[in-house]
């Protein structure tokens, strides 16, 4: 731009405009990245237990596609509801800051009418970790529509463990062959849910395979996407180092098995340091008289033997075991979180407690329907989860 012969006012104006233009460019380039998703929700045939049943598919997939993101990314998720009834997705563990209407639970977000679409605009602001999404209406969760959400740390933020060779998501959960509408009717008629028929790992009763290379360390993110059962997760011949629970880096403790309650997500590191063969990955029900088991396969690339030996057992009805494990999990206060500052720098321990709130869950009959409550407070949303 030539400013030699223009009057000073015009020169000033032009330079002001180019500064604005520059600021604008700077602003655009500094904006957090966007990730776009276009999802179509349909009913479709699935065969997780070998027999045909009706499932909820996202872009034809069961479970739904994984959302891969990095701290502060903007997620734009256009959801087309092709079900003949309203549909709604919720983002388990994702904080909706000043954005609660994107949370996707009935009463906060309007359901997507049949044949219509809605675009969720989320930002995973100041978050890291392992989460999942699920349908929050009409017991749809019992038919699918769930998937994993990963939020990676930004490249310059230190992560308190070496970069894993690969990063897997495993969605584990109890499963019913009974159609979700029938299951909903069971609750609506005042009864409790029956026992599930099976446990699934990534939509399969048995056979989900993870490929490992000898000597390398992998991250496995395990989320319980089921309806009611706590599951114990373990891997034959291997221990697991817990590193993250729903967005918080933990003190790195090694476990031989981990209880994952409904709705929880855990990240563990597993090293392929055993003899080159295939090993069972196991998820089994806890606190049930009849233990249901699902297996997957941890396959070494140089494996010389398929899975063999007894499927390793885990705890079954022991409640104390689970409580003790939960109590053993601690935040690593000196590790970074979404920002480089240590997770302990907020000094939670120094905040004076002015009020203590105890939360207690209970089950009750309301108008002859089976309902669940927290502190005797019945929430419409809670009954739908
Ligand atoms: C999956 O494997 C377990 C353990 O062998 C078995 O108990 C269960 O019946 C199998 N499930 C199906 C659906 O085949
Ligand atoms: C519905 O999807 C179309 C494109 O497929 C998009 O242009 C429109 O903004 C979406 N509407 C809503 C409400 O998200
Ligand atoms: C906690 O995180 C710090 C920082 O990365 C690390 O040096 C330390 O080993 C971790 N401590 C435990 C007990 O995991
Ligand atoms: C907590 O209370 C103590 C004693 O009254 C006071 O000295 C301290 O500043 C308080 N801490 C905070 C974070 O308010």
TrEMBL record:
Transmembrane segments: none annotated. The keyword Signal applies. One of its GO terms (molecular function) is copper ion binding. Residues 41-154, 168-303 form the Plastocyanin-like domain. SUPFAM superfamilies: Cupredoxins. Belongs to the multicopper oxidase family. This is Uncharacterized protein.
């Amino acid at each position: 731009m030539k400013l030699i012969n223009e009057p000073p006012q015009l020169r000033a104006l032009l330079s002001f405009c180019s500064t604005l233009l520059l600021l604008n460019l700077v602003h655009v380039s500094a904006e957090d990245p966007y990730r776009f998703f276009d999802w179509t929700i349909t009913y479709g045939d699935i065969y997780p237990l070998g027999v045909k049943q009706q499932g909820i598919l996202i872009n034809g997939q069961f479970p739904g596609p994984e959302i891969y993101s990095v701290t502060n990314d903007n997620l734009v998720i256009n959801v087309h509801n092709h079900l003949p009834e309203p549909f709604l997705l919720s983002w388990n563990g994702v904080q909706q800051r000043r954005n609660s209407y994107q949370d996707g639970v009935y009463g906060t977000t309007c359901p997507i009418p049949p044949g219509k679409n809605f675009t969720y605009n989320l930002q995973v602001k100041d978050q890291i970790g392992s989460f999942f999404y699920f349908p929050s209406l009409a017991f749809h969760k019992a038919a699918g529509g769930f998937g994993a959400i990963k939020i990676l740390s930004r490249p310059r933020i230190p992560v308190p463990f070496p970069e894993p060779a690969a990063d897997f998501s495993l969605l584990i959960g109890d499963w019913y062959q009974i159609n979700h509408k029938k299951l909903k009717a069971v609750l609506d008629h005042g009864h409790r849910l029956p026992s599930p028929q099976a446990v699934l790992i990534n939509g399969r009763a048995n056979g989900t395979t993870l490929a490992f290379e000898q000597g390398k360390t992998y991250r496995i993110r395990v989320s319980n996407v089921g309806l009611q059962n706590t599951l114990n997760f373990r891997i034959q011949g291997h221990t697991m180092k817990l590193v993250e629970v729903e967005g918080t880096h933990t003190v790195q403790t090694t476990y031989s098995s981990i209880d994952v309650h409904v709705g929880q997500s855990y990240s563990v590191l597993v090293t392929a340091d055993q003899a080159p063969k295939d090993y069972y990955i196991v998820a089994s029900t806890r606190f049930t008289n009849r233990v249901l088991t699902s297996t997957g396969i941890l396959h070494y690339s140089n494996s010389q033997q398929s899975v063999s030996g007894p499927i390793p057992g885990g705890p079954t009805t022991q409640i104390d075991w689970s409580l003790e494990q939960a109590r053993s999990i601690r935040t690593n206060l000196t590790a970074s979180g979404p920002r480089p500052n240590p997770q302990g720098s907020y000094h939670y321990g120094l905040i004076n407690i002015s009020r203590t709130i105890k939360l207690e869950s209970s089950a009750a009959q309301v108008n002859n329907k089976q309902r669940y409550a927290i502190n005797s407070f019945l929430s419409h949303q809670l009954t739908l989860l």
